[in-house]
Amino acid sequence: MIPDLTVTPSFAAAAEVPADAEVLGVPVFSDLTTPAGAGAEIDAAYLRQRRFEGKPGQVQALMADDGSTVLALGVGERGKLSADDLRRAAATLARQAGAARHVATTLTAALDDRPVATRAVVEGAGLAAYRYGGAPNRKKENVRLEAVTVVGGDDAELSRTQIGVDVTCQARDWVNRPPRDLTPRELARLTTEAARRTGVKVDVWDEKRIEAERLGGLLGVAAGSDEPPRLIRLEHTVAKKGPTVHLVGKGITFDSGGLSLKPPASMMTMKCDMGGAAAVINAILGLAAIGSQVNVVCWVAATENMPSGTAIHPGDVLTARNGKTIEVLNTDAEGRLVLADALSLAVEENADAIIDAATLTGAQRVALGDGVAAVMGTADLVGKVIAAGTAVGEPFWELPLPKAYRKQLDSDVADLKNISSIPAAGSIIAGLFLQEFAGDGPWAHLDIAAPAYLDSEDGWLTKGATGWGTRTLIELVRSW
What we know:
single chain; alpha/beta; disordered N terminus; 21% strand; 480 residues; 14 helices; elongated
C-alpha cells in the first residue's frame, strides 16, 4: 500500500474466514445456491420469502449460528458471471456492512479465475467504501470500513489492486476538494509531495517558464485568472531503451467558461474539470508503486478559466507550442487549448504512444450517458484502451474521427478554430482538434466528462468524483 495516501480499507487474502470478522459476505447465484467454499449455509426458502433473486447488487442479511451477520450477495446466473457482477456484489458488501470495521467475503469462490475475481472484489469493496472527509488528508475514523479479508484471494493480485484503489481514491479526493482549495499551485504541490513518496521525478513550470516555453494555449486560458498556471511533468523511467508512454491530462481546476460564461447550474460542479489531470497523475504514481517496467511520462496543463478584464476574448488568436495558430471563438472550449500545448510537448519527446484524458465535452454525456466514456484515436491504441477499461470496470466506446468533419475547424484568420459553427458531434470535433497536436504516432483521446463526476452513487462508483480513467491507464500501461 502506498504510504500517506487517502485512507482506504486494508485488504488481506486468507484461506479461511477469520474468527474476528464481524460480517461475512457470501455469493449467491440466481438459483439461490452457493459455490463450493462459500463459507456459510444459506436458507434458500427464507431468501425466496424475502424476494431475494440473486441478482448482482442484491443483498439480504442473515443471522449465523454464532450470532454474527451473514450477507447473502447476489452474483447472477451460475457460469455466466462477469468481473463486473463480482465488483458490484463487493460494492454492495461495503455499503451494507453497517458499523462493521472488519468484514470477510468468499465472493472469489463464485468465479474460477481467482486473480480476476480477487481484483473485482478488492476494487468493488475498496472503491465503494470511499468517503470524502472534506480535507486533503482524511482521518481514519471517516472511513466506515477498515479491513476486508478476501477468502481464497490471490495475494499478488490483491496487492496490485489495492494500490490501484488507493490512487483512484486520491484522485477522487483531489477532484472533490473545493476549487478555492485546489488551485493550479496547490495541485502542483500535492503532486510533488506524492511523486516524492513514490520515487517519481517531478518538474513544475511556473508562469515565467511557461511563457518562455511558448505554451500559448495554456497562457491564453490562464489570462483571465489571478491564479497563475502550472505545467507539471512527471517521469517514471525503468529502461533507457524501452518504450515510453506519455499520459496527458487536462487540469482546469475551475471552469467558469471565461468570457463565454457558463450558466450558473452548469458551473456548480466545475471543480471536476481537472478530473483528467487527477487520473493521469495518479496513474503514473500507481504504476511506479506496483513496479511497472514501462517508461511513463505525464504532462498536466493546469489553470483556472475565469472571466476578467485580462481574459481572452472570442475572436482572439493564440499560438500553441507547435506553432499552430488557433482562433478562439468560444472561451468555454478551453480544455483543448491547454491540451494542445501538452500534447505538443509529448510529441517533441518522440513518445511511443500518447494517451490524453480530459473532462472535455458535454456532448460526451449526450452521446454515451454517465456510465460510458468516449475514446478516439489510432485503432490499435483505442482497442487497448477499451480492453483495459473493460478489465477494470470502466467501459469506453470508440467514436470516429471522420476526415470530412475537419473542415468545420477551418478558420479565416488562423490554422484552425477551437469550435465548429455547427452544433453537432461536439466530442468528435474536439477530438479532431486535438489530433492536430498529437503527432503521427499512436494516440488515444479519453473524453471522461460524464463518468468522472456523478450525481449519485452506482455500484463501486461514488457520488461526486469517481477517479474514472486512473485504473484504466494503470491496466493499459501495466499490460503493455
